[in-house]
Design brief:
Blueprint: H1 13-33, E1 45-46, E2 69-76, E3 92-97, E4 105-108, E5 114-117, E6 121-124, H2 130-140, E7 150-156, H3 159-170, E8 176-180, E9 186-189, E10 193-196, H4 202-216, E11 220-228, E12 232-238, E13 244-248, E14 252-253, H5 254-260, E15 273-279, E16 282-288, E17 302-305, E18 310-313, H6 321-332, E19 339-341
Parallel strand pairs: 1-17, 12-18, 16-19
Antiparallel strand pairs: 2-8, 2-11, 3-4, 3-7, 5-6, 9-10, 12-13, 14-17, 15-16, 15-18
């Protein structure tokens, strides 16, 4: 009887290798995305692609917003030397005829820029230097007087300045005035009138005001200060405990914004958090994976917010651009607004 031999079945090597490879890959993935205990890493910071280069520790350059209160401080700078002296409406002009003193005139320049002179009637002087007026009058009187010798002087040229000083010193705030930016972005400044202020820097607005005031009254200068700002806000909505608008004094991360909103709910989908920002007349939205952010123990960059940003924490995972636009639209009722979805988000880096 033939000897029976027991045959050992060969071990399937391929499935074992595949399983080992999968475990290795999972382990590497976890090692790359999750921080180990006591491990220290440098977590990157970022925001929307069109805000690259901005500092995350400071607000962007401040621009005036509706609701802001501005302090306008007036200064009278009559001591500054100027290259030319032009006659203005509030000046007193003296015209002296050397050989015919009976024709001499001293008049306050009228609002239409005119003075009245013998034989020639009304004569326009505003914007001209005394020397220019002398030369023009000599030509005008050449056919009337023989070899006319005429001198023009401005004995009084601070009438408006003196009147303004009286008004300012008797006002409750002295040399300063408080003005508020209206909801339409305009501000009404003393004497100048309405000026568009919203969206402009204090420096740019101050430069325009000084140009306007100099044209009104020579030597009048203003310094513009931000007395009180309407507040820099971020909005947190969705699956959070205390949704609403929150005041910030510097850029903050999305995780910090959620902390202001009382943290997220148990059903919050942290891998589909939406951030929306106004940019060039549009609302740009992007999706970030907060669950892998450095703020929650991951290695991905921390996404930073700027004033007026919206954070929406959904209760269901969002993956399509249309879903992002729809959820943002429903969150803030942006019906009719154009919403563009950023193509780059943290979970894709």
């Amino acid at each position: 009887m033939p000897e029976s031999r027991s045959r050992s079945r060969p071990t399937p090597a391929l499935p074992v290798l595949v399983l080992a490879l999968l475990m290795l890959l999972v382990g590497c993935a976890q090692q790359q995305t999750v921080l180990e205990v006591d491990e220290e890493v440098v977590v990157a910071r970022q925001s929307f692609s069109f805000t690259e280069g901005e500092k995350f520790d400071l607000m962007p350059k401040y621009t005036v917003s509706p609701g802001d209160t501005l302090d306008v401080l007036f200064q009278i700078r009559t001591w500054l030397e100027k290259d030319t002296f032009n006659i203005s409406v509030d000046h007193t002009v003296a015209v002296k005829f050397i050989y015919t003193p009976e024709l001499n005139e001293e008049q306050l320049v009228r609002p239409n820029g005119m003075i009245s002179l013998p034989y020639i009637g009304e004569y326009y002087v505003v914007g001209k230097t005394p020397k220019q007026v002398e030369q023009e009058l000599k030509k005008a009187y050449a056919g009337i007087l023989k070899d006319p010798e005429i001198y023009v002087q401005v004995p009084e040229f601070q009438s408006a300045i003196k009147e303004l000083k009286r008004d300012l010193h008797t006002a409750p705030r002295g040399l300063s005035r408080l003005v508020t930016v209206r909801p339409d972005g305009y501000v009404t400044f003393p004497m100048v009138g309405e000026v568009m202020a919203a969206g402009r820097t204090i420096e740019a607005l101050n430069t325009e005001l000084n140009r306007d005031y100099e044209q009104l009254i020579s030597g009048l200068h203003v310094d513009l200060f931000l007395e009180r700002h309407s507040g820099s806000l971020v909005y947190v909505l969705g699956a959070v405990n205390e949704p609403g608008a929150f005041t910030i004094v510097k850029p903050i991360s999305v995780a910090q914004a959620l902390a202001l909103a009382g943290s997220y709910n148990d059903d919050a989908q942290l891998d589909s958090v939406i951030v929306a920002r106004h940019h060039q007349g549009k609302v740009i939205a992007t999706r970030i994976d907060l669950s892998r952010s450095g703020a929650l123990g991951g290695r991905k960059p921390m996404f930073y917010l700027m004033p007026d940003d919206l954070v929406f924490v959904p209760r269901t995972r969002i993956s399509e651009a249309a879903q992002i636009a729809r959820q943002v639209s429903e969150a803030l009722m942006f019906r009719g607004w154009h919403i563009t979805v950023e193509s780059v988000s943290i979970d894709e880096l």
